[in-house]
């Protein structure tokens, strides 16, 4: 059995990674298929998808915390107005 040559380390732009993640999220092709189509490792693509999910959750969490803060202020304002 012949050994595969190790891949040299490559770097990709955030835009390219985002496009790959979007292809995976669409569901037309599997992560493995997207990786093969773009000559990427499945591990790298799965990591990019996971990182995108984590980033989206952070953004959502921040937005929800801001919403809660606004609601707290509104509640305090209306509580003082009704007295």
Number of helices: 3
Poorly predicted regions: none
Global outline: rod-shaped
From N to C, what is the helix and strand string? HHH
Mean pLDDT: 93
Task: Provide the domain count.
Answer: 1
Largest sheet: none
Number of strand segments? 0
Report what the structure shows:
The chain has 83 residues and is an all-alpha fold. It has one domain. The protein has three helices and no strands.
Summarize the structure.
It contains three helices and no strands. It is rod-shaped. The chain has helices spanning 14-26, 31-37, 42-81.
What is the element layout, followed by pairings?
Layout: H1 14-26, H2 31-37, H3 42-81
List keywords for this structure.
single chain; 83 residues; mainly alpha; 3 helices; 72% helix; rod-shaped
């Amino acid at each position: 059995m012949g050994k595969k040559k190790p891949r040299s380390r490559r770097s990709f732009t955030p835009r390219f990674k985002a496009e790959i993640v979007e292809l995976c999220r669409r569901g037309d092709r599997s992560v493995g298929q997207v990786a093969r189509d773009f000559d990427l490792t499945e591990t790298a693509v799965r990591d990019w998808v996971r990182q995108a999910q984590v980033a989206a959750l952070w953004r959502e969490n921040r937005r929800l915390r801001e919403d809660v803060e606004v609601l707290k202020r509104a509640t305090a304002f209306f509580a003082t107005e009704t007295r």
